[in-house]
Design brief:
3-stranded antiparallel beta sheet; two-stranded antiparallel ribbon; 4 helices; 31% helix
Length: 137
């Protein structure tokens, strides 16, 4: 599932990205923060499984930049998406092959971290995710 970031986002507004990014609160684990943000942004209950973590740094023109440590999780749900409008302007489900084609054809529509994540997921995890095999880095 992809979501298009709200126009109110200061960095990368209206860019397609992974569903949910978060920063943990005091005494909150990374996994708990992820589940919390999935609920806050999309009104979904979803068990998540850790894949890997990575660092990235990117600038958004002269408006600002990010330098973050990102933890990548995945999960499954059959629940109805109710997107929070301050976070998400659109959302959609997309097949892995279609996402790869869209990034190759017009990568400027996607956040820099999504493109980095997707490449690693394709290289190291996608076959196991699609086969329903547990993925642990």
């Amino acid at each position: 599932m992809l979501q298009k970031r709200s126009a109110n986002k200061p960095l990368w507004p209206l860019y397609w990205s992974n569903s949910c990014c978060s920063h943990p609160r005091a005494a909150e684990s990374i996994e708990e923060a992820g589940r919390r943000r999935i609920h806050e942004e999309l009104h979904l209950e979803c068990a998540v499984q850790f894949l890997y973590k990575f660092r990235y740094q990117a600038s958004f023109g002269d408006l600002g930049s990010e330098h973050e440590l990102c933890h990548v999780f995945f999960g499954y749900t059959n629940s109805e998406v109710i997107a929070h409008p301050e976070e998400v302007t659109e959302w959609r489900y997309i097949t892995p092959d279609a996402l790869t084609r869209e990034i190759a054809a017009d990568g400027d529509r996607f956040t820099p971290w999504l493109k980095m994540e997707w490449q690693r997921i394709c290289d190291d995890y996608l076959d196991d995710i699609l086969a329903g095999i547990s993925c642990r880095d």
